[in-house]
Design goal:
Elements (H helix, E strand, L loop, with lengths): L2 H9 L6 E11 L2 E10 L3 E5 L9 E7 L2 E11 L2 E6 L8 H35 L5
Antiparallel strand pairs: 1-2, 1-4, 2-3, 3-6, 4-5, 5-6
């Protein structure tokens, strides 16, 4: 295998990913652990904080007490893993709607933070006299 081939396969994304940041409970073979879901698509999740899991391990992940998904570990490196959802989600699935809502909230916070930083920067420039023509 060529040196870059593994990196390309590891980093490829078939579906659009959406950033989230939420704690979930991942179960594999009767052992549960808390993980952090950091992104999602209709076909999978990326999680952080895993321990003792390997590629192809079957999992169940609970996002809320009422929303659980099944899948398998697609890849794992250190404490991070990609989960292939089985079956894939459609855009009307309760888990997809929940995750989309979480992603939207993060994006709104990011936009507000950027707007606040821009406003503070503009105020600082006006005070220093650099903002006038």
């Amino acid at each position: 295998m060529r040196p870059g081939a593994l990196a390309r396969n590891f980093l490829r994304r078939r579906d659009d990913r959406h950033r989230v940041n939420l704690t979930a409970i991942l179960e594999c073979r009767g052992i549960a652990q808390n993980v952090r879901v950091v992104d999602f698509s209709v076909s999978g999740l990326r999680v952080d904080g895993i321990q003792g899991l390997a590629t192809a391990d079957p999992i169940q992940i609970s996002l809320t007490p009422d929303i659980s998904l099944t899948g398998e570990i697609a890849w794992s490196v250190w404490h991070k893993a990609g989960i292939k959802l089985l079956p894939e989600l459609d855009e009307t699935h309760p888990a997809y709607l929940f995750l989309t809502e979480q992603a939207s909230a993060i994006e709104q916070l990011r936009i507000r933070a950027l707007a606040s930083l821009a406003k503070d920067r503009a105020s600082a420039l006006r005070r220093s006299g650099q903002g006038s023509a």
